[in-house]
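Section 5.1 Outputs to date
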Amino acid sequence: MKKRLLILLLVVAGTGFVAVPKAKAMDPVTIAVLAPAAMRMAEATHPYIMQGIACGARGMAKAGIAGFRMLYLPWGVVQCTLGLPLGGLSPGIGNIVEGGTAPFEMAFRIIMLPVNLCGVDI
């Protein structure tokens, strides 16, 4: 009970003295004046934004496929052990290697997502 009270007191003391920022409103006339310029800018950048979204979606799909390939590792172990009498050693070793490299490929794909969102397809 004392521990919870101490934690609550520390949380209140840590957040109780923080100043809340005041809201600042923008003049509606300024919004009306800037809207046509914003529309022209949006029309000009539309192809680049669409290309970035498409490359980002492909990068996320590649990362998901690499994550799925991690399941090859236990499948390869099963193939090597249970499929040994049936000639499953070679495909099992291949699946173990592919499943073992999949986490590194997935990490690479996830690290490359910001680059993909800029429109570069890696």
